[in-house]
Design goal:
CATH topology of the largest domain in chain A: Aldehyde Ferredoxin Oxidoreductase,  A, domain 1
Low-confidence stretches of chain B: 1-45
Number of strands of chain A: 18
Shape of chain A: globular
Strand content of chain B: 5-15%
Structural class of chain B: alpha+beta
Structural class of chain A: alpha+beta
Distance between the termini of chain A: 37 Å
Strand order of the largest sheet of chain B: 1-9
CATH topology of chain B: Alpha-Beta Plaits
Mean pLDDT of chain B: 80
Number of domains of chain B: 1
Number of strands of chain B: 9
Number of helices of chain A: 24
Largest sheet of chain B: 2 strands, antiparallel
CATH architecture of the largest domain in chain A: 4-Layer Sandwich
Mean pLDDT of chain A: 90
Low-confidence stretches of chain A: none
Oligomer: heterodimer
CATH architecture of chain B: 2-Layer Sandwich
Chain lengths: 626, 201
């Protein structure tokens, strides 16, 4: 067989306790079956025995994987972080969070498919990687610095390198701490910044002088050329998310006309969707989608919006969580469940000005933001532990407010807009939607594309939808397989929406991904075979959940309030979920995926069909085979 | 693979580096006109600066450049069949915290010092007689580095491959009928190809 390209062939394996650096062949983890990214992370975690330790235990691996397509021009330059996540609720779960920026492609050029960090250093350290030359260096001079300062200091010592780092929130083990590369490229979900913090690993500095060898460069260029000819490499559409799409008009206009420097984005990507802004006295950085949330409570003040974004990035706090937290805080205060005092916060400007005007001015904003984020960093604010644990602390009534905002499993970024997305979340380990926009940006409203893939779709056009539950399991299965696949290849979320590259029957997203993989690696997997890899990865994730966390049918659920009334928020479900229909939907879903409907565990038959006999054996050993 | 050793223990690069400068100076002075039968004659021939054809060049607009590096990736793919930054004939220097990016590419000098410095000129470092494009013939290049030393720009616009140590320079994708691939694929339209007739300097 011809040489397989795409993968670098080795994994950088670092033990911080023993100060030991080694290189492990990627082939130990069957990359042709588990691809890379989330798939590779999950496979490594499974092979490590899915350790039943807590997130801050030295045996919790910090996994950073890229995929075979990483390093090629296009929306392929992403990495996935994995490991036991401190943010997960009600217990710490094995989880995932992706990021872009420059680091992922640099990792490929340095010659690695993944970095695995185990153990715990006594003193702050950073990892320096120049191709094969890897060292653990002292980072005591960096401890306490924010994410921007850390990167700048390290880039002075290591010019033109790419730095992955965490901020003071990670150092202080906040459960909502991020890992950041450059600005606005963060592994936000899961609190992995705190996993780095617990290992005393301040940063990873990376420089790669190698390259991604391709099996068929001509075919890859032809694929790019075809997309270009059809106008699919044009950048316009996605940049609206970098233009404060969700903010008030005054803010969006103010930011775009006064403070927008240019557009930027992840390395090698043709979309460049981040708005790069700068306001003197506050700072410069990127913005894409979620960072606009500060506009929800800052009224017309562009400065307030921008200060929030810069401060959270520097301190290393997840913007998604801040969005949920402030909504939670405001909800609780309106319902008189608690006051700002209980949260150790000054008055929330928007609440006391009725969400109008400049919401109390720059000074009040500054006070509020500093108190909120300062408290999250030093632990004086219960939000240090994330919203779920803060709600637990604040009592049962606060928990009700929380439940209406956070549908399931701890992390909130999006609202649930249909039954199929609801089932997706119920069976995942976190809010899956920021890597499953297939629901909201495609099938929810685009029935044409849905039909092409044998799905129903259209549930975001309320009134037209007669039976919300019919075939919902198929879309959940489709999106979960695609999500697992693209997070493993690794293809960017926005660069892989099924309505893109849609020119059936010649080209669709499945054909595109299979052709790109063939051109880069030389592996000729048909779209169906590649799809099976997606399903395999999703099923392996399930096996980890079942083995480590005893995930069961009962655990695949949403918070009670979603079955009782229309929950709070913007684009929520049109009606409460019907418990009976929901349970029969789940049964259909388990059948479709080859899991035992009685307990939600994968069966030996399906695991064997997906080429994971060893996983079936592993589950049988602990008595949890479906 | 570049380090071919000669008999006295010096590798080819060290050997030619030592001999190169004197040789080149002589060559430029000695040959005033182009001798198209150079390869057959086996002697170095050079063009007079004034008689060199002028090529077009690639111009970068830092105001809109996003620093994405699609240019580098496509360049390396086009020329070497691999995707990587160090394999790109152009270099992108990034300051992501100010979103400022510099693109260092060969300026296609009207009097290319690199060309005159090449001890094996017209075999290793060549000028396309029709278009005036400077290009490297890697089969003949030994990686002596004289061209890099001679480049008047800082940072240098001609560089040595990090592994093979052979010379690399932008050749405006002379063998690609659609023109420079970086210009075509730049998503921000930050790169422009300026044809010979429209060059300002």
């Amino acid at each position: 067989m011809a040489t397989v390209h795409g993968w670098s062939g080795k994994i950088l394996w670092v033990d911080l306790t023993e100060k030991k650096i080694s290189k492990v062949p990627t082939s130990d983890f069957e990359p042709e079956k588990f691809i890379g990214g989330v798939g590779l992370n999950t496979k490594i975690f499974w092979e490590l025995g899915s350790p039943e330790v807590d997130a801050f235990h030295p045996d919790n691996p910090l996994l950073i994987s890229i995929g075979p397509l990483t390093g090629a021009a296009g929306p392929f330059n992403r990495a996935e972080v994995g490991g036991i996540a401190p943010q997960s609720y009600p217990e710490e779960l094995f989880n995932y969070s992706g990021f872009g920026g420059k680091f992922p492609s640099e990792l490929k050029y340095a010659g690695y498919d993944a970095i695995v960090v185990l153990g715990k250093s006594e003193k702050p350290v950073y990892l320096s990687v120049y191709d094969d030359d890897v060292a653990i260096e002292d980072a005591s001079h960096l401890w306490g610095l924010d994410t921007f300062e850390t990167q700048q200091v390290l880039r002075e010592d290591h010019p033109q390198t790419s730095v992955l780092t965490m901020g003071p929130a990670g150092e202080n083990l906040s459960r909502i701490a991020i890992i950041l590369n450059e600005s606005a490229s963060a592994a936000g979900q899961g609190g992995y910044g705190a996993v780095m913090g617990s290992k005393k690993l301040k940063a990873i500095v990376l420089k790669g002088t190698g390259s991604l060898k391709m099996a068929d460069p001509g075919a890859f260029m032809a694929l790019m050329g075809e997309r270009k000819a059809r106008g699919e490499l044009e950048i316009s559409g996605l940049q609206r998310w970098g233009r404060y799409l969700q903010a008030r008009r005054e803010v969006a206009h103010g930011m775009a006309s006064n403070h927008l420097k240019k557009f930027s984005g992840c390395h090698g990507c043709t979309f460049q969707c981040n708005g790069f802004y700068g306001i003197p006295g506050i700072g410069k950085g990127g913005q894409m989608c979620v960072e606009a949330w500060y506009a929800q409570f800052s009224g017309t003040s562009a400065e307030g919006v921008w200060e929030g974004n810069i401060l959270s990035q520097k301190l290393g706090i997840n913007n998604y969580d801040l969005m949920g937290l402030v909504n939670f805080a405001v909800g609780g205060i309106y319902r008189q469940v608690f006051t700002e005092k209980d949260l150790n916060l000054p008055p929330i400007p928007a609440v006391h000005t009725g969400w109008k005007g400049n919401c109390g001015g720059k000074e009040k904003h500054h006070q509020f933001l500093s108190a909120l984020m300062g408290g999250i960093v030093d632990g004086s604010n219960p939000f240090h532990q994330g919203a779920a644990r803060a709600a637990d602390k604040l009592g049962p009534k606060a928990k009700e407010v929380y439940d209406a905002l956070y549908p399931a499993h701890g992390m909130r970024t999006h609202w649930i807009v249909g039954i199929s997305p609801a089932l997706h979340w119920a069976t995942d380990t976190r809010d899956p939607f920021n890597s499953a926009h297939d629901h909201t940006m495609c099938f929810g409203h685009d029935t044409r594309v849905a039909k092409h893939f044998g799905l129903t779709g259209g549930y975001m056009r309320w009134g037209r939808q007669k039976n919300l539950y019919r075939n919902a399991e198929k879309e959940t299965w489709w999106v979960q397989s695609h999500q697992s696949l693209k997070n493993s290849l690794t293809v960017c979320e926005y660069g892989s929406i099924p309505s893109l590259f849609f020119n059936p029957p010649k080209m669709d997203i499945r054909i595109f991904e299979s052709k790109a993989l063939a051109a880069v690696t030389g592996l000729n997997l048909s779209p169906d075979m590649l799809w099976e890899a997606g399903e395999r990865i999703w099923t392996l994730r399930r096996a980890v959940m079942v083995k480590r966390e005893d995930r069961s049918r009962a655990g695949d659920t949403l918070n009670q309030v979603w079955f009782e009334r229309r929950a709070d928020g913007g684009q929520e479900l049109p009606e409460p979920i019907d418990r009976e229909k929901w349970e029969s939907l789940k049964t259909r879903y388990y059948h479709l995926l080859g899991w035992n409907p009685a307990n939600g565990r994968p069966t030996r038959a399906r695991l064997t069909r997906l080429g994971m006999k060893d996983v079936a054996d592993g589950l049988e050993q602990v008595g949890r085979l479906g | 693979m570049a380090k071919k050793r000669s008999d006295n223990g010096l590798n080819r690069r060290q050997f030619i580096t030592g001999a190169g400068s004197a040789f080149v100076t002589g060559a430029v002075a000695a040959f005033a006109t182009l001798n198209p039968s150079y390869h057959e004659a086996g002697a170095a021939q050079a063009l007079k600066p004034s008689s060199l054809p002028v090529s077009g060049l690639i111009v970068h607009n830092p105001k809109v450049c996003a620093g994405c590096g699609v240019c580098n990736m496509m360049c390396s793919l086009q020329h070497y069949g691999e995707s990587g930054l160090s394999l790109s004939n152009a270099e992108l220097v990034r300051d992501p915290f100010n979103a400022e990016f510099a693109f260092h590419v060969c300026q296609q000098c009207k009097s290319p010092e690199c060309y005159f410095a090449c001890p094996n000129m017209d075999a290793a470092l060549c000028i396309d007689r029709e278009t005036g494009v400077t290009y490297v013939n890697q089969e003949e290049c030994v990686g002596c580095g004289e061209c890099v030393k001679a480049c008047p720009f800082e940072p240098k616009r001609i560089k040595l491959h990090p592994k093979t140590e052979l010379s690399m320079v932008c050749d405006l994708c002379r063998n690609r009928k659609e023109g420079p691939i970086c210009v075509e694929y730049c998503p921000m339209k930050a790169l422009t190809y300026v044809p010979a007739g429209k060059r300002s300097g």
